[in-house]
Amino acid sequence: MIHTIKKAITVFSLVIFGSAILYNCEPDADTLGEQLFLDGAAQGNEKSFDITAFNINNNDSIRSDASKLTYGVLGAFNEGQFGMQKASYLTQLRLSTYDPDFGTNAVVDSVVLVMKPRYASDSVTTNTVDDNYTYTTATETNVNAKKVVNTYPVLKFGKAKRTFNIRVHEVNDFLKGVSDSVKSNQTFAYGTVLGTKEFKGSVSSVAITKDDGGAALFTAASPGIRIPLDKTFFQNKIIAKKGQPELQDASNFTRYFRGLRISVDEQDGYLFQFSPNDMELIMYYKYDKTDVTPATRPQATYTFALGAANTHIGQYQYDRTGSVLEGATIGDRKNGDPKLFLQGMGGPSIGISIPETTITDLKKLVDSKAGIISAKIRIYTDPSWNNKDYAKPTEFTLLRKYTDAENDPSKIRSSFTNDLLKLAGIPGYTFYKSYDLDKNPAYYDFIVTQSIKEIVEPASKPTTDKTETKYFKIDLGSFQTNSAGTGLAGQKFTTAPYNTSRAVFVGTDAANANRVQLKIIYGTK
Question: How is residue 428 annotated by DSSP?
């Protein structure tokens, strides 16, 4: 495909290291090196090169402690390509006040654990459940009103119409400190069942509106899953310990009441995300109020702290038995793997290496006075991944795997690609682009222009850089921003520990026109 460079690229900005950076939302130009081909004297040409793609086995494990979980995952999903994946969640809890006074003769009425999943806020179903409701406000009594329930489907990955039995257990093992590292396949003992809930895939909120004018009299908090817990357990575990050491400080309490484990009974259905720091645990109780005559027994509430001060752990189980992945070629870094399997939450990653034959061909191209304008790794989804119920992935990370030629050339390290380091500050920049997500196959382009130039054009590599790129690593998820929102938090901070997506791609397969390839746009005069 031939273009004049003026039509193919747009000068966008000057960035780090004085490079002239080009970026265009069209697939043909997101390029470096255009300064050689301005003034209408150059022609742009596209050429494809074979590269080696392989599966990386992560042993179905990933760090999933509190520092990694912006969202928790719950559920189970079983399909033929990847097999079964099941997600449970463990959390500590703390007292909101230590050495609490529950009053005289306190008795627990009920206890509720509230989970708040991510839901489709634009897909509400509204039902008026009571047209003749009366409500009392601070200034009015017996106000004529309507009680309305708004229901929203939870955002899911998997088979949408399944019912889960959610089960809450008491954890028997200490869940470590909030800053400790925990892997997703680590097990913790659990015992007493504290509560269960049948969950049909949607969450609801309640609103009460005034008949006269429709003004809102009451609006519940954001929709959630309310799981009733064993009130007798909390009577004995909490109320009966009033004034005792177990309730007097955080260290004692987290070793006395070690935490909660939330899971589902089923082995298939779907996966959904929820916010760990927005969970609530509320204990309702009554006590003797003796400072009035006659004495009364008012209801009170005690709220436990389930937020950021606690350890949170995503616990993931896999069963690949009978799946396509179980019998697939994994990790052939010399010849490549014909199918590529990519899955979040500790599943397999994709590796992409540039073989020496391709590097030689690219260097010959450069030696012939051609200049690389754009370089992209293109991957297509495999025909086997065409179920309409499985949304195509839309979040990826791309890392450069390299060796240090001076210090330890045998050790593989990771870093952002120089494409990302140089271009991330440009508005609208993305290091990958998605195409035909509503079709089969879909395909993705990963931008590696600067990385390829550094391999084949010596002048493009900083003189202080003594490293050698060995391969690129693709994972599901996205890079997270820092707390100030001014840049990326670092290569290790991604959403992969709770990304529920997966997909199968065409790998290194000479007979397949959609095999992984390196797409180069170069210019000549």
Answer: T
